[in-house]
Amino acid sequence: MRPYLIATVALLSSCLGGGNVAPHGVPLNLDYAVPSLVDPNRPWGFWLASLGPAGVAAEVTAGARLCLDRAGGDDTPTIAAEATYDLGDAFAGHTLRIAADIERPPGSRAEVRVGLRALAPDWTTTERWGEELAVEPTVANVQIVIRYEGSGPACVSALRLTVDGAPFREALLPSRETPDAAAVDWADRHAVPLATTDPTAPLDDLAALAPVVADARIVMVGESTHGSSELFALRHRIIRWLVEERGFAVVAFEDHAAPCRAIQDYVETGNGDPVTLVDNLFGVWARQETLAFVRWLRATWVTGRARPTLVGIDLQDPRAPLRELAAFATRHDAELLAAIEAGLAAMRAAWAAGAYPRREAAEHERWCAAARRVEALLEQRTATLTVAAGAETVHRARYNARLVRQSADVSRAGDMRTRDRFLADNLLWLRQQSPPGTGIAVWAHNTHIRFDEDAAGQFVRAAVGDDVVSLGAFTHSGQYAAWDSTARRMRDYALFPGPPDSIEGLLHTVGEPVLALDLRAADLPGWLRRPQLHCNLGLFAADFGYYAAPLAKSFSALLFVDRTTATRGL
User: Fold this and answer.
1) Which residues of the chain form CATH 1.20.1440?
2) Which of 11, 165, 185, 371: disulfide with 408, CB 3.0–4.6 Å?
3) Would you say domain 319-430 falls under CATH 3.50.30?
């Protein structure tokens, strides 16, 4: 699988910063010649992970051929599987066509098509197979898509991209808009150095964030990857500042309610093993850096410096909320229990068989309707149940009912924007249930805290206005951790250095190891007002991972760490 590796070392080296190349040096790689940073046995930029669950094997062979194969016979069900390659918005406003040579040996039942897919900022898609695609100027991403169906071998070679009717022969994708002198000068003058990312260090330098936070009672602190140690540590440090210096009392965490509740019990009582409790969080959070944060939460309670409360606001998995809700109903309300068992037993069984089950639309609709009935019934009986079970117990049951209903809706919709709307709903509900003026710090990925792209931050801001602040956090280069779906664990990856035509590239020129940059200034230069590349890596690793957006609309301020290391496992 490695015949192309030796021949492409020089090209990869130039792509990562040397040689006379286009500014950001991103390989187009239509000949599969450049190996992936994520997996050197795969070609750069091609997302092949989705092929595996469908049983499709992928291999690059001599002659620049991507060969796909799926075992099966006449009775093998037809399952579509895709390999994709992200072009980002490099060809925004142009007309594209993709073509390829597709070879199938006699007897193969494979059907392979090559096409283009455009993703709009609202994540609606447009696809073209064998036809031209007119790319909108506002496009968020364009993908080359290789779709495989059936069974048997097939090879795709000689990918050919045509731009505005002319063959695109460059080995590198075109750069976007590099920062002009005005942007570089403005960033240099306005960037505020921060002393360290060490969460145990004195907090005096974070006074630089006071004008940004002002009187806001919701402060969301993000990360550009789910696995950069120094970004985790800096967020820990800022939340510590919010709690210890500004009286914030709640930390809303991008995870489920049950594991966060168990951690909060440890924080208040010391019950449980913190390593085990952190290990029960999402894999991206089950890291040494999160453990340090949890131990700090516990220390604040022990010393009496503060009494912060950790609350999970995510909703993807209904198993624990369903289990707790049924236990509550068993003790306190037979009619509520009957409604749960009659309406949601099938949903519980589907999830018990495997996470994120996919069913016919009608079954998902039944789950949603049943979850709404259960939630409505519980709301109707809140006053009576509060007398019998206590306010805190009923509050927890009501929250669990919300989470079950939201999880059913996300399963039906099948998109993460629905999840973001519910993350915002839960944060706003938490605000409503807290005493007036309670400060809430939010721990979540940049994707969720931004003020645009139908993110949770946008929904929260629409509800509370200036009472919410969003601090997007970025890094220029180094290592990060992400989920390896084959090994079923987190592992370390090399981060593609921030290109010169990215926000990370601009902040790198400032020359500070850690800094903050307020984006609310009236004299913000045009380059920062327009959509620019920035890193956005979530659960999985990627070779590039940079996408364009107008960050001045996305965040109140930026946090930046020039170089990071990967988060460390427990």
Assistant:
1) 319-430
2) 371
3) no
Rounded to whole angstroms, how far apart are CA atoms 322 and 342?
13
Question: Could you write out the DSSP letters of every residue in 436-490?
Answer: TT--EEEE--HHHH-SSTT-HHHHHHHHHGGGEEEEEEEEEEEEEEEEETTTTEE
- CATH entry, 181-248+439-564, from 3.20.20.70, 3.40.47.10, 3.90.220.20, 3.40.1660.10: 3.40.1660.10
Ranges for all domains in the chain classified under CATH 2.60.120: 6-167
Q: Looking at the chain, which residues constitute the CATH 3.40.1660.10 domain(s)?
A: 181-248+439-564
Tens-digit pLDDT string for the chain (570 aa)? 333 322 333 333 333 333 333 445 788 999 999 999 888 888 999 988 778 778 888 989 878 899 999 987 667 677 789 999 999 888 999 999 999 999 999 999 999 999 999 998 877 899 999 999 999 998 989 999 999 999 999 999 999 999 999 999 888 888 888 999 999 999 999 999 999 999 999 999 999 999 999 999 999 999 999 999 999 999 999 999 999 999 999 999 999 999 999 999 999 999 999 999 999 999 999 999 999 999 999 999 999 999 999 999 999 999 999 999 999 999 999 999 999 999 999 999 999 998 888 889 999 999 999 999 999 999 999 999 999 999 999 999 999 999 999 999 998 877 788 999 999 999 999 999 999 999 999 999 999 999 998 999 999 999 999 999 999 999 999 999 999 887 889 999 999 999 999 999 999 999 999 999 999 999 999 999 999 999 999 999 999 999 888 999 999 999 999 999 999 999
User: H or E segment at 411?
Assistant: helix 391-413
Closest by Cα among 338, 341, 358, 342 to 350: 358
Which one, of 234, 260, 252, 239, lies nearest residue 306 by Cα? 239
- E strand map for 276-402: 309-312
Nearest to 26 by CA among 97, 89, 119, 101: 89
Closest listed residue to residue 314, CA positions, set 266, 254, 392: 254
Name which of 554, 559, 494, 497 is nearest 231 in CA terms.
559
Query: Which CATH number describes the domain made up of 6-167?
Result: 2.60.120
